[in-house]
Specification:
- The structure is a homodimer.
- Chain A is mainly α and about 200 residues long.
- Chain A has one domain: Orthogonal Bundle (Tetracycline Repressor, domain 2), CATH 1.10.357.
- The N and C termini of chain A lie far apart (about 50 Å).
- Chains A and B meet through helix 8, helix 9, helix 10 and helix 11 of A and helix 8, helix 9, helix 10 and helix 11 of B.
- Chain B binds a DNA duplex (18 and 18 nucleotides) through helix 4.
Chain lengths: ~200, ~200
DNA sequence: GTCTATAAGATGATAGAC
DNA sequence: GTCTATCATCTTATAGAC
């Protein structure tokens, strides 16, 4: 079994020329833009500048590559959340997190939220891949819930769902309407809502 | 060109044994449960009890069948919205529409919102099929916006997006968490929000 | 008018060459 | 250790039988 990205040493990466990482990176982008099912290994290999068919040297199956993309997304989320703990209070942390969506409004209007659309597609798979999506939303729900809890709200769990529902729903509509400003406006309203909470 | 479902007379249906309708109905359910890309014509034909390969007698291409499913969903939406005009005021109409989602909470927790997930997948297609999704959300946004407008709100457009964002986002999270009550709770909060608006 | 057999093409995966 | 050639399978689509 090959080591995961996080387990690889620098020398491993050097020996392979970073091809595994290029594959995961190219796959992440293509799965976001085209969808999981619509993207072929050939397209991923081409985008990563790796010989087609050679993907199987780095990943045992196609599902394994998809799993690696999910792991990478989960890691990105963890990094974003970790960076926010520097902020002084839960209110400003929640608003800063929301702004990571409006900052990406152009991309989201074009291809939807990378997390939300990935989850939705994984949730339709009946294989074990299907339950991998919890890696993405669960940490977010817990983190957001913790912020509301710190604010002294006993209904922190419902508030976390409301928060993420707004963000994901607005991303879906902005994508469907191909209008980044739809997302920007909803995030602004979400910030007001956070400020208005006691 | 074959007549669409709405244009078919009873005798047409009788002669065909309703196979076209069975195909669209089976396709709609499978696209919802498995996704557009993951569903094959064989699966649809089998579910509709129509000989495999015979699908092309009723639909010129696979995309045409998907289009028929989208048309059917759009028609379903129109029917639901039409039925709501009997209600006395915009506030009760908005709450009644929201309840159509919580009424389907078990199905949505299992497979997501039929409209939202269909839109998300269509939005990733670069063919002309991709822009068909506007048939689904546009009428909803306009109708919901009209209700807020009748309530005297000048920001009716933003409110309509907030309303649908909440519903679609909550459906996505309920699906990911496999928890119908998540959706039910968010719809209850949405109803309170509607009541609280001036 | 209805359906079967099959073509044509693409995709995931493997075996083995370099 | 890296990559190429190829297989087996599946899927859309068509031609033509009944």
């Amino acid at each position: 079994m090959l080591p995961s990205v996080s387990e690889m040493t620098d020398s491993d990466v050097g020996e392979r020329g970073g091809k595994r990482e290029r594959l995961v990176s190219a796959a992440a982008e293509l799965l976001h833009r085209q969808g999981v099912q619509a993207t072929t290994l050939q397209q991923i290999a081409e985008a990563a500048r790796v010989p087609p068919g050679n993907v199987y040297y780095y990943f045992k199956t196609r599902d394994d590559l998809v799993r690696a993309v999910v792991d990478t997304r989960a890691q990105e989320i963890a990094e974003v959340l970790d960076a926010l703990v520097r902020r002084p209070n839960p209110r400003s942390r929640l608003k800063a997190l929301a702004r990571t969506w409006s900052d990406q409004r152009d991309l989201i209007a074009e291809s939807g939220c990378a997390i939300g659309s990935l989850c939705m597609e994984l949730n339709k798979q009946d294989r074990d891949l299907g339950r991998q999506s919890t890696q993405l939303f669960n940490p977010l729900i817990e983190w957001v819930g913790n912020q509301f809890h710190e604010m002294g709200r006993s209904d922190y769990s419902d508030l976390a769902v409301t928060y993420l529902s707004t963000v994901e729903g607005a991303s879906l509509l902005a994508n469907d309407l191909r209008d980044p400003e739809v997302l920007a406006r909803q995030i602004r309203l979400l910030e007001k809502w956070i400020d208005a909470l006691e």
